[in-house]
């Protein structure tokens, strides 16, 4: 994990673009990072100049003001070290917060937009096959046409959450990797999948194949039309996703143990 100020800034913009809000604690850390990034130490000798021009400099105070000015001489390497120490500490705080309550709260703020878009696809799926040709839709009446025309907007919201928000949270090298880096086949897709599954459902490998962009980008509803047919969908918080992932990993470990026992009977 190599969180950066820039990646957090982009992430916050992505969250806002799909109607989410940044929790107070996460925003406070981000604001502190911005302040550290723009901080410049006061010019050396500023206090001495003020003392000289306001009459506060005299033989009795001369040593104090001159010593103070000497202490204000800034070494660029020291300035960078101070800024770096503060930045590393704040980035660690951000990663910890978004992996816990902050991440849960952030996802909660995205659910209305995510759920509305998902419901739009479900409404369309109740009227026609989501991969139906346009001429087939025309025969079904105005409601079907309206639902068909709305699919791109619904997909845009769902894809934005999937690629711009969830991917940064669980996969991006400049994100917090809130689910860790477990050894999984097609790990990137699997980590995103457990963020939208209320419970384990079938093979993660099969589900990962269903969301393969090479074969789903051309579909009007993208990979969502396939995924909806294979598992219930719900936007999970990191805490909820960990439970789903843990269940899959436990199942994987038990399966490997069983295979090992079968190949090495006592």
UniProtKB/TrEMBL annotation:
This is Uncharacterized protein. It comes from Rhodococcus tibetensis.
